[in-house]
C-alpha cells in the first residue's frame, strides 16, 4: 500500500514512528511489546528511523520488512543523505526494491553524533531535494518528505524554508510529514503558505510528540528548533520533578493540539512515539480514533 493512498480515506489516517533497537534482544522486545501495543491502535502505517550516519540502517530495513511481512502493518523506511554516496544510496534502494518496500521517507538527516553541522559526503547529496530526485528516478517508490512549521533551525528565513518544502514536492515528494510543534498556529501558517503560494495538493500531515520527561522534551524541542509555548513551559517546569505528571501533561497538551488539527481537517496525525505506547494510546483514545 502506497502511503498517499492512505490519506484518501474518509477517516483520519493515524501513524506512528519509532527508532530501531541496537541489539537483537531489544528488537525482539520491540516486536513483543511495542509493536503489538501500536497495532491495537490500528495504525495505517509505521515509519522506522535509522541513526545518524546510517548506524542502524541494516536493522532498520529488517524491521520494516518484519512489520510488513510478519505483522501485516505497512511500513515506511527512512533514507538520509548522511554518510552515503550516490552509489551507497543506489544500493540501499536496490535492497529496498528486493524486499518489496514501496515507501521511502527521504530526508537530509541530522549530523552524526559528535558533529555540530551537516557535512556532505564526497559523492553524496547536500540537500533532501536532491535525494528526492534521485529516489524518484531510481524506481517506483512512493516518497514522503519532511516539513518544518517553524522553519528549519539551520535556515534563518522561515518562508525560504517553506519554499524548500514545496521544492521537495515538486521534485517528487508525494506527502509532507512535519517536524514536531506545539503551537497549532505554526502549522496553520505553514499549511496556508504552501497551499496558497505554491498551490500544493499533497497531504500535509502534522507530526506530534508526547512528553516523556521535562528534560527529554526540552532537549528534543531545542534540537529540532521547536518552541514550547510559554504556558506549557511554565506547567512543565512546575512538574519537572515528576515524570509521570509530565507524561500526563503531554497527553493533555497533545490531545488538545490534535483535536484542533482534526477539527481543522488535517488528513491524519503522525505520532513520534519514542518506542513507547502508553501516551500515544491515551491521546488516540481521547480523540475517539480507536
Folded structure, characterized:
With about 290 residues, the chain is of the alpha/beta class. Helices cover about 45% and strands about 15% of the residues. The chain has eleven helices and eight strands. It has an eight-stranded parallel barrel, surrounded by four helices. Helix 5 packs parallel to helix 6. The longest helix is centred in the last third of the chain and has 22 residues. It is globular and about 50 Å long. The mean pLDDT is about 95.
In helices, the fraction of residues equals: 40-55%
Instruction: Write down the overall geometry.
Output: globular
Q: Oligomeric state of the chains?
A: single chain
Q: Could you state the order of secondary-structure elements as H and E?
A: HEHEHEHEHEHEHEHHHEH
What is the structural class?
A: alpha/beta
Strand content: 5-15%
Instruction: Provide the residue-averaged pLDDT.
Output: 93
Q: How large is the count of helical segments?
A: 11
Rg over alpha carbons: 18 Å
Low-confidence stretches: none
How many beta strands in the DSSP annotation? 8
How many angstroms does the end-to-end distance come to? 21 Å
Described by strand count, sense and barrel closure, the largest sheet is: 8 strands, parallel, barrel
User: Which strand order spans the largest sheet, edge to edge or round the barrel?
Assistant: 1-2-3-4-5-6-7-8
